[in-house]
Design brief:
Order of helices and strands: HEEEEEEHEEEHHHEHEE
Strand order of the largest sheet: 7-8-9-10-11-1-2-3-4-5-6-12
Oligomer: single chain
Number of helices: 6
CATH superfamily: Lipoprotein localisation LolA/LolB/LppX
Number of strands: 12
CATH topology: outer membrane lipoprotein receptor (LolB), chain A
Radius of gyration: 18 Å
Largest sheet: 12 strands, mixed
Length: about 260
């Protein structure tokens, strides 16, 4: 359950606006008997993104290289980096997610509020995706994400943000640690689709409040029923600041003295 929530937090922190942009956010999450609060900074340059996320006493760094189809994951206490082939990983992940039956709804709700000193428009977001554990039909369930999100138009890097997410979604990219994503393929793919839909608004999400529900599909199964009884999860993501300015190329690759380990 901890890995499930971590996956969701990582996904929410990965919010690219990639024309040499620095984005700082806070994320609060709770549910299923656990709670989490963290901060993160995202750096974007061209088709590359770096996310630094504070996890307890360490910083986990994830680097997304969209053109090279490579994802790097390492933390501040190690001189090692895992390297994922994202083209192969996306193909493997798709085996346990039914994207054809994924339902997405993003509609303006007529509300507005000020976030980080700028005006944001409200939208109601709902995503429903069937998922299964280990690809087994006997362990199927439905994951639903719903809640309000607040979009800022004409924010720094908006045009690049929209282009990046549409391209990433077409390639089946994810925005979290692949190790955690393997355990929660439905939620992971739902997050990618969510960001694509947000990009279609032509703005940037400055705040998102999500409730995540899991329920058994018709016919029932022990795991889905158990998750439904345990309860739901919630996340609240808030942007603190968005800044533009030149970033160095070195920020978007592991340090030269790191040991690189291929992962599948």
């Amino acid at each position: 359950m901890t890995r499930t929530l971590t996956t969701i937090l990582l996904a929410f922190l990965a919010v690219p606006l990639y024309a040499d942009v620095t984005l700082k956010q806070t994320v609060n999450g709770k549910g299923m008997g656990i709670g989490a609060a963290t901060t993160g900074t995202t750096y974007i340059k061209g088709h590359k993104m770096r996310s630094d996320m504070q996890l307890a006493d360490k910083v986990q760094t994830t680097i997304f290289d969209l053109d090279a189809q490579k994802l790097y994951v390492f933390d501040s206490k190690k001189k090692e980096a895992d390297v994922w082939d994202m083209a192969a990983f996306a193909a493997e992940l798709s085996k346990s997610v039914d994207t054809q039956n994924m339902k997405v709804s993003l509609k303006p709700n007529g509300q507005s509020k000020t976030i980080a000193g700028v005006n944001a428009s409200g939208y109601d977001l709902e995503i429903s995706v069937p998922a299964s554990m280990g690809g087994s039909k006997d362990m199927s369930m439905t994951v639903t994400l719903s809640g309000p999100t607040w979009i800022v138009q004409n924010a720094p890097g908006t045009a690049d943000y929209v282009g990046f997410y549409k391209a990433a979604a077409e390639q089946g990219w994810i925005f979290s640690d692949p190790r955690a994503a393997k355990g929660t393929p439905g939620q992971t793919r739902a997050m990618t689709e969510m960001y694509r839909q947000l990009a279609d608004t032509g703005g940037i999400a400055y705040e998102t409040n999500m409730q995540i529900k899991m329920s058994a599909n018709s016919g029932g199964n022990p795991l889905g029923g158990l998750l439904a009884r345990i309860g739901n999860m919630t996340t609240e993501t808030t942007t603190q600041s968005v800044e533009t300015g030149t970033l160095t190329d070195a920020m978007f690759s592991p340090p030269a003295d790191y040991k690189l380990t291929p992962r599948k």
